[in-house]
Amino acid sequence: MKGPGIFLAQFAGKEPPFNTLEGMAQWAADLGYVGVQVPTSDPALFDLKTAAASQTYCDEIKGRLAQHGIEITELSTHLQGQLLAVHPAYAEQFKAFAAPEVRATPSAWPGWAAGELRNAARASQRLGLTSHATFSGALVWPFMYPWPQRPDGLVEEGFRELARRWRPVLDVFAECGVAACYEIHPGEDLHDGATFERFLDAVDGHSAANILYDPSHFVLQQLDYLAFIDLYHERIRAFHVKDAEFRPNGRAGAYGGYLGWVDRPGRFRSPGDGQIDFTGIFSKFARYGYDGWAVLEWECALKHPEDGAREGAPFIRKHMIRTTEKPFDDFAATGADVAANRRILGL
Fold first, then answer.
1. CB half-sphere exposure, 37, CA atoms < 13 A
2. Is 206 in contact with 174 (CB distance < 8 Å)?
3. Which of 293, 323, 327, 335, CA to CA, is 20 to 30 A from 19?
4. In sequence order, which residues have a C-beta less than 8 Å from that of residue 108 and are 6 or more positions away?
């Protein structure tokens, strides 16, 4: 495992050091991070189109970050991936994610988003990255709770369309040797293990279709986040370290009662402040040989972001496990001897 890294999306802003990639790299390095996950929706921070076409640009970016002891962990296209599939009910809310030239035309969003995603695959390849962070988008999410009863075939048709839009993009990721890692997230059609399996079937098990594991979303869904690793570890190629807590009460539960984040029974917390068993998670990853990055994603209803960032690097470093090269009881080993083993068995 590599780390600690930090996702920059929640910190980018108009004031130094948060208004430039190099400024945030120095800030992250001063906090003890060695990697940054880079959002690609703002060309002022990272020019995705240029990066897809120019090895010189990518080499310059890597070189400037390396001066601060920082690597890029993954590029992120969460906002662009979202626009590959948007149900009309959400068009007004998501239009700000689109480029100005297509913002007023929702029918143009999938084509624009596909171009962005293809650029992300090529830019990742030029940067020497092997994983990429994104969202799947959602066509079926408004029908998540089956009331009124869903028409037969609705979900299947939605996933066929989602697969149709993603398959050519996944082909480009595969050509570039980059895993497209979907953050399994409520609001997306890929929001749990069952929906990821449904999508994987729809794209015929495409090798580029992988998972960004974020346990906080599973706590809010009351899904077993440790068993999830057992089931899908072969497809987990990225990891957000984000905490959460779920404290249901007599007024609200998993759906949150339309309450603000502070008042919801399920809410995100800074690592160490919630209920997630990170010792168990890092142990699972050590067991299965996860060799990707551990990246802090700060989202907390209470704590100041800069405090969360400051605490995040030592938290991750504390939990990272350097795996042993020999069994702990090797000191008592008696060697391999077939004849002795048969005698022990009474044979």
1. 30
2. yes
3. 293
4. 102
> What DSSP state is assigned to residue 346?
T
Taking the CA atoms of 246, 250, 256 and 261 in sequence, report the sign of the dihedral they define: negative
Burial (Cβ within 10 Å: 0-12, 13-18, ≥19) of residue 149? exposed
Q: Give the number of domains in the chain.
A: 1
Domain ranges, residue 333: 2-344
By DSSP bridging, strand 293-296 and strand 2-7 are parallel
* pLDDT value at 335 more than 90: no
What residues does 296 pair with on adjacent strands?
6, 241
The predicted-structure confidence for 220-234, as pLDDT tens digits, reads as follows 999 999 999 999 999
CA-nearest of 75, 62, 31 to 317 is: 31
Q: CATH code at 218?
A: 3.20.20.150
What confidence score (pLDDT) does residue 345 get?
Answer: 94
At residue 178, what are phi and psi to the nearest 5 degrees?
-120, 135
CA 216 to CA 231: how far, in whole Å? Answer: 17
What is the structure's pLDDT at 205? 98
| Token pair recorded at residue 311 | 């605490």
The residue behind tokens 């990853």 is 285
Which 3 state secondary structure label does DSSP give 238? strand
Report the DSSP beta bridge partners of residue 152: none
Residue 162 banded pLDDT, cuts 50, 70, 90: very high
Which of the four pLDDT bands, split at 50, 70 and 90, describes residue 155? Answer: very high
Question: What is the per-residue pLDDT across 71-98, written as a single tens digit (0 to 9) for each?
Answer: 999 999 999 999 999 999 999 999 999 9
Residue 120 has pLDDT above 90, yes or no: yes
How many residues would you count in the chain?
347
- The SS3 assignment for 102 reads coil
Q: Is the peptide bond before 146 cis (omega within 30 degrees of 0)?
A: no
CB of 23 closer than 8 Å to CB of 29: no
Q: Using CA atoms, how far apart are residues 177 and 12, in angstroms rounded to an integer?
A: 29
Summarised one tens digit per residue, pLDDT across range 310-334 is: 999 999 999 999 988 888 877 778 7
